[in-house]
From TrEMBL:
<dbReference type="InterPro" id="IPR050796">
    <property type="entry name" value="SCF_F-box_component"/>
</dbReference>
<protein>
    <recommendedName>
        <fullName>F-box/kelch-repeat protein</fullName>
    </recommendedName>
</protein>
<dbReference type="InterPro" id="IPR015915">
    <property type="entry name" value="Kelch-typ_b-propeller"/>
</dbReference>
Length: 345
């Protein structure tokens, strides 16, 4: 029974730096046992994670690391690991010499024959190159990079694509990008390697949006502000054809308060909302605040359980000050794999 539940309840992985030791730490939340585990990274692996990086995963569990920020090298190599626990990192042989600034990174399993002896994947990287929003694709099957000729249309009057302006999610073979403030949305189709025309999320009351996905559908967190002291966050289901959304659940007020209580009183709710991070797969959507001063509280919405919200247990004491750099969901770990893995309790 646990094996069956695990297929719809993905593990949540967090990777970040400890502010005092500056060592890279990783932890995992098991939604079945409802417990946090600290992953025991080998010391020799720490240099791999120390630079700022973007972390993502395929639905089968392959982890992808892409360097972020200012790159001092003329070439960019990907690192990937097929197992999130017993980590054995490999590096791509091919490199791209066109580093993209402010990258959004997504990874998808390739549509390969089931008889294939290896798990191949495609990495989508969207970033700035010579003042244009450019897409690079890496295919592990051919170990090669490709730069897509058509740039993404501007989603707003801003030039930089920081997390305060745009949000992204992957559904099937589509990578969605939305303007948080206006709801203008588009997607990149990996099948045709082209952008869809700009659309706008259509619905009532919501003023700001953060995208999320469970792999089977497109969702969004919507912020509604009635006045300076009265706001709420709702989970929205988005119709991918019409781009109309409908409210399916509201985050309980106490959970929303736990995510923003580290902000000063009077802080505009949009600022606090912009720091939220959400990642989902299977039946679950995890939400937490990526603010540097966050108290690292997490909550989750279980879609199949009537969109029920609840708060996750508190992180272990030695991880409460963790500066999270990235997170992802993965189905790779199953209960019997956990029993064979080494954890620091």
């Amino acid at each position: 029974m646990k094996f069956g539940v695990a297929r719809t309840h993905p593990f949540l992985y967090l990777w970040g730096l400890h502010p005092r030791s500056l060592l890279t730490l990783a932890c995992m939340y098991d939604p079945i046992l409802q417990r946090w585990f600290t992953l025991n990274l080998q010391n020799k692996m720490n240099p791999v994670f120390s630079p700022s990086c973007s972390l993502t995963s395929t639905r089968s569990g392959t982890l992808i690391l892409y360097p972020s920020g200012i790159c001092s090298s003329d070439s960019v190599f990907l690192r990937f690991a097929p197992n999130p626990v017993n980590i054995d990192w490999s590096m791509s042989s091919a490199a791209t010499n066109q580093f993209l600034f402010f990258p959004f990174v997504a990874a998808l399993d390739s549509q390969r024959s089931p008889s294939s002896s290896f798990s191949s994947f495609v990495v989508f990287v969207l970033g700035e190159l010579r003042n244009a929003h450019t897409v690079q694709l890496y295919d592990s099957a051919t170990d090669s990079w490709e730069v897509c000729p058509s740039p993404m249309a501007m989603l707003g009057p801003f030039r930089f694509m920081g997390s305060f302006h745009v949000s992204s999610a992957v559904v099937g073979r589509k990578v969605y990008i939305v303007n948080i403030h206006t709801g203008v949305i588009t997607y990149f189709n990996l099948g045709t390697k082209s952008w869809n025309p700009l659309r706008k999320l259509e619905g009532k009351h919501m003023q700001h949006f953060l995208l999320s996905s469970t792999g089977r559908g497109l969702y969004a967190l919507g912020l509604y502000i009635a006045d300076q002291t009265n706001e709420c966050v709702k989970l929205l289901k988005v119709n991918e054809i019409t781009m109309q959304y409908k409210e399916v659940s509201q985050m309980p007020e106490q959970l929303w308060s736990s995510l923003i209580d580290h902000f000063k009183k009077g802080t505009h709710p949009l600022l606090a909302f912009s720091y939220l991070r959400c990642t989902g797969s299977g039946n679950l959507i995890y939400v937490y605040s990526g603010s540097y001063f966050s108290k690292m509280r997490f909550c989750v919405c279980d879609i199949e359980d009537g969109y029920r919200w609840h708060q996750l247990p508190v992180l272990p004491a030695d991880l409460e000050a963790l500066e999270v750099r990235s997170e992802c969901c993965s189905f790779q770990l199953m209960p019997e794999v956990c029993l064979k893995s080494r954890f620091v309790q």
